[in-house]
Every structure is written in structure tokens, then in C-alpha cells.
Amino acid sequence: xxxxxxxxxxxxDGLAEEDMEHPGIALGKAGKYEALDxxxxxxxxxxxxxxxxxxxxxxxDISGSLHAAAAELAKKRVEDAxxxxxxxxxxxxxxxxxxxxKSDPTAELPISASILVAQDxxxxxxxxxxxxxxxxxxxxxVELIQANILKPDxxxxxxxxxxx
Length: 164
Fold this sequence. Notes:
By secondary structure, the protein is mostly helical. Helices cover 51% and strands 0% of the residues. The protein contains six helices and no strands. Residues 1-23 are annotated as: Disordered. RPEL repeats lie at residues 80-105, 129-154.
């Protein structure tokens, strides 16, 4: 069986009753001691200042105005670096010329991406058909040998044995 202590049985710790008061919290004397113990445990397990500085949770001990100036300087450096990269960025017309962009985004009537995809597919199919036509019209090895364009060698078959 657990024995519970009443408020009159708790040892005093030298704190006055009004020092133990917390506004808005109605605690008995035992509850006040538990709250203080909880607070002491919490503060004891709190990380050290150097640990917080190392993990960049706390900023270094510098004045507020100096810290603000350092942050502003860092921000300005990033802005300047980005501005330089943007200035060096090639013009959209150059990108179209180098086939990086399909159409000029600054054009008066830019072409929709879906139309560009369809156009690319159509061009690809047209090139495939054109290549297939040219391959089908290509003369055979026998015809080239008979026209004295291709010289027969020992590794190729003789024209009489080749069937056109």
C-alpha cells in the first residue's frame, strides 16, 4: 500500500508560501513541490550554451546591430552573386539558335508546348519516311560492281553468284 503525505507532513525548504505561487495554477503544497522538481529536472537537462552555439540554434554573442549588419551583408553577397549569374545568362534567341529552346518565349505569339511536340513528331516521321525511300532506291552491291563503282574483292561474292 502506498502512503501519501499530506501538505502538513512535507518538509519545509525555506521558501515562503507566496514564493511558491504560480498565477493561474491552483496547486496544493505537494503539487507545488512536484512542479518545482519538474522545473529543476528540466533545467538540469537543458543543453549547454556552447552546444546550442555549435548546432546554430543560438547566435554568437555579438550585439544585435552587429548581428543584423552581418546578416544583411551575407544576404547582399548572395544577391550580388545571383545578379552576376543572371547577367551572364544567354539570351532566349541564342538558346533557340543552339536548339536548347524549341521556340522563342519572347516572341509575339509563343507556340504552345503541345503543338511543338506534335510538330517534332511529324518532322521525325517525315525524316524516317524520306530515309526509308532513299534506302529502298539505293543500288545493290551487284549493280555497283557491274557499273564498275565497286571493285570485287576476295571477301565478296562474284557478280554471277549474287542474285539481285
